[in-house]
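Protocol step 4 of 6: record predicted structures for both targets in the notebook before any analysis. Target 1:
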Amino acid sequence: MIRNIIFDWSGTLVDDLPAVLRATNHVFRQAGREELSLDQFRAEFCLPFQPFYDRHLPEVPLAQLEVWFHERFREVQDSVEALPHAREFLLFCRGRGVRTFLLSTVHPDHWETQSVRSGLGSFVDRPYVGVPDKRKVIHQMLAENGLAAHETIFIGDMQHDIETARHGGIGAVAVLTGFNKLEQLRAAGPDLIVEHLGELREILERNGMQLAAAAPAAEQRPVATVGALIFDEHGRVLMIRTQKWSHLWGIPGGKIKFGEDSVAALRREIKEETDLEIEGIEFVLVQDCIHSREFYRDAHFLLLNYTCRRVGTTPVRLNEEAEEFRWVTLAEAWELPLNTPTKILLEAVAGRRETVS
């Protein structure tokens, strides 16, 4: 049974990625280098961060880099907010009597500011902050607090967090809410990958505070889902990008609830994920999506795919499940890195249009 949880801070409990990127690009500008895009930063940034700067700015002393970074970060850290599900998960831990700890590289001054502003600091029994290499502290942390390894897990969003858990002989849980992408986290070999802390809470509740093992074959069932290629008034289609589909582009949609018809489910999911109302709904095809490596966990989906139109000109407002969106032409959609089910849907829609014409 899990009795102790060690959390990372950045990307696990709070969303500070935009602020960190802005501060990092300030460092690059000060050193006369080109700024990094978000995708470049996520692909290259690592912990400990010394190798990252050694690759890009080997001529600048670390002390100077830290001065530049922290002076800018102090100016932009007002944008740092608690991630969705973080507070609820910490309340869940408190209600279950789970001891909570923090192991993070976040600067002590930034931790003090963010822990108060986010309201999350009071839920942490003991923070260990300003730690450049967490692997060098994990054994000390376990010993000082009397944490049994088999009762302890570390939750983080980066490969370094998973490596730290392995180094300490404790459970490792990766979340998709932070810096590293799915393929990076998967390569580190965590015990479990979850989309967010809300999913982890459901798993722990369902499994009696144990990390989930594979469900018995008799309990495994395909999951029915709905999704739609949404057209706007200009004939463009809405593409969204999510971490859970390997940072690939696809369409909005989700699971059908028990007792809910598929069209009602489609309207609900589109509204929840994009804040759009839809009309002109037409069924296109059903797909089997079985053991796709593009999805963050092993799954068997029955994908009911539709086309539809956006009602009016309501702007898209994404919920926490998606990272970004674009309205693109069908031709432009093919230029994006798409997940496989979306490629199949686009091919089917193109085939229909050719038949009609």
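Target 2:
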Amino acid sequence: MQKGFTMKTTINTLWGRTIRWALAFALLTLGGFAAAQGVPRNFDHLKTGFALQGVHTTARCESCHINGVFKGTPRDCATCHTSGLSLARGNVVKPQMHIPTTAACETCHSAQSFSGAKFNHVGVAAGSCTTCHNGGKAPGKSANHWPTQASCDSCHGTTGWLPAKRMDHSTFTAATNCASCHNGSAATGKSARHVATSANCIACH
């Protein structure tokens, strides 16, 4: 054995050759597929009017072009990402618990990932928050939210739950049970050093 030529060197050399042969085979296979479909290897997909971005850059051609048919392939997201449609096989599809909307997928999602979507609340009817914010389709009231029948947008904005607007107490009367909210959980309640009393909060505060 030559000086400095070890078993480890031999293994690394063979492994490197194996990887190079595997890559060459993969490129030839993909090139053969493209040629068989009449697509040049340097084909610019942007010319079709549909730029390959995000996860689409690594998707297999046949996942969108069924049976080698290129002409007439849909360009909208829903055709490939709606459960039950032929082009949706193997793709991520809209879940059953998706918020109800007729907006196009790309209104909230990008080709990079479906996660991290941001919903544009412009045009959403006032008082309809719980249609989505019910704890299933989208986050809703927490378990310790103070009891109320008011719509979410009475106190909260569309950019985040916090900070919430101050509760309007102007309609409350002496008969209002303050402790139903001011119990230390839903809202600030009596301090540990508060005088012992069964009187309603509104009697003094």
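Step 5 preliminary note on target 2. Residues 8-39 form one domain. Residues 30-37 have pLDDT under 50 and may be disordered.
Proceed to step 6 after PI sign-off.
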